[in-house]
Design goal:
about 230 residues; mainly beta; Methylamine Dehydrogenase, Chain H; four-stranded antiparallel beta sheet; 18 strands; disordered C terminus
Length: about 230
């Protein structure tokens, strides 16, 4: 299972048990799955050990990739376009970007360099998708791109929370003025990592971990804030 880096979609593949691929819309503000917009079941011979195994969204969240793990000549990596999140549109966009009768594709994982890495079970190399945001074969699949000998790939790759790769984060607070908060001002604490921030001269104000309004009933306070007008939360 993978989240898109913007937190708006979930991709799920179910290996062997149901051989199921599902894509969901997700509301990251409420933590709710709002709808399932794509479902696919792939049939394999009973007991073959074949099935959908790895998955990942492209860095720009326009594509969804999944791998078929097979030691029976059926292994492949598949791309779906999810810009139009409907069953018909996603199904129509499906394309095999790599098939192999001798490889066994497993985990898929985005890297910090914008490329997608594919584990090839039992091999001493990793495959790479150089341009995972691009459609179809333009994504530029490179087999045996990285030599990891004397190591050997297994089914997995190191797990990364892919929202960490999105290159940005929202402002922690909406500031009412450039550099100070005055009596009667209110700030909206949209997001708080450590649930407090520093102000001067009165030291530290604590806020609740959920979205909260903080009112300042006393004289003005100068704000100690980070660049880009994000308040320090050390």
């Amino acid at each position: 299972m993978k989240f898109s880096s913007d937190g708006k979609m979930i991709g799920l593949v179910n290996y062997m048990d149901q051989n199921l691929i599902e894509l969901f819309n997700f509301n990251f503000s409420t933590g709710e799955i709002t709808s399932c917009f794509y479902t696919e079941t792939i049939q394999f011979p009973t007991g073959s050990g074949d099935g959908p195994y790895g998955c990942s969204f492209s860095p720009d969240n326009t594509k969804f990739y999944m791998s078929i793990f097979s030691q029976n000549g059926n292994s492949k990596v598949v791309q779906y376009d999810v810009t139009n999140a409907t069953q018909a549109a996603v199904a129509a966009s499906k394309i095999d970007i790599k098939t192999s009768a001798s490889d066994t594709y497993a985990a898929l994982q985005n890297g910090t360099d914008g490329k997608m890495y594919i584990s090839n079970f039992g091999k001493t190399t990793l495959d790479i998708i150089l341009d995972p945001n691009l459609t179809g074969l333009a994504c530029n699949y490179q087999a045996n791109a990285i030599n990891i000998a004397p190591g050997q790939a297994t089914a997995g790759l190191p797990v990364i929370v892919e929202s960490f790769l999105s290159g940005g984060s929202p402002d922690l607070f909406n500031l009412p003025n450039q550099d100070k908060i005055c009596k009667g001002d209110t700030i909206l604490a949209i997001q708080s990592i450590k649930n407090h921030f520093e102000i001067y001269p009165s030291n530290t104000i604590w806020v609740a971990p959920d979205s909260s309004l903080v009112n300042f009933p006393h004289h003005h306070h100068h704000i100690h804030h980070c660049k880009h007008r994000r308040l320090c939360n050390e």
